[in-house]
Amino acid sequence: MQRIFRQNYTIAILGCALAFTVTAPAQAETTAAGTQLELTGTGTVDASPDRLTATLVARGVAPDAATAQSRANDIVRKAMAAIASVDGVNGAADSYSVSPPGANDTAKGWEARQTIHVVAFGSDALLPLVGRLQAQGLLLDGLGWSLSPAREKELSKQATKLALDNMREKARDAATDLGMKVASIAEISLETPFGPRPVMLMAARMASAPTSTPEEQHVSVTARAKIILGQ
To answer: What is the structure's pLDDT at 130?
Structure first.
């Protein structure tokens, strides 16, 4: 699905008392080169994310720090071996921490924790693997869909084209309303306000494979331009 947003704008020619209301945000002034028109065009592309990331935590608890670390390390080692055995899935061990028992929690003992991120394109291979890792003792801390860099770049190109088309259409409409023609583009800039945000899903604590459905994400680009109008 592709959408273009349109907004109202007001054009005023310096030295004239008339104001013209048309269909895009713009400002115009008369210069030596002609009437200069400032306007924006926006393009937005909606697409389903293609990359799924699972965040898991390996946890080892023992009366002493060394044993707690050994237990956590053993869980991580087995998890990384399981991840490596699945085609199309990548895993990376991340932050590591060791905590002493709290003052009011002496029965708990020392705790060692390490985070593992598992990434795949799509959910077919990843979700069954996550279920296996949970069965091995890892805790699922979250699932998140996002756009891969290549997919985001492709969508950004599409949104840029829509933004430029929208900007050109607004320029033509404004010129027609003023009884003028588009002579040239004096200046143009492209902006991406915010990149698509990953869609995070609730963590699952059971050992069965979780389910996950991607939601559409939006990639937007805004084109800002100074257009020279002539007769």
So the answer is: 96
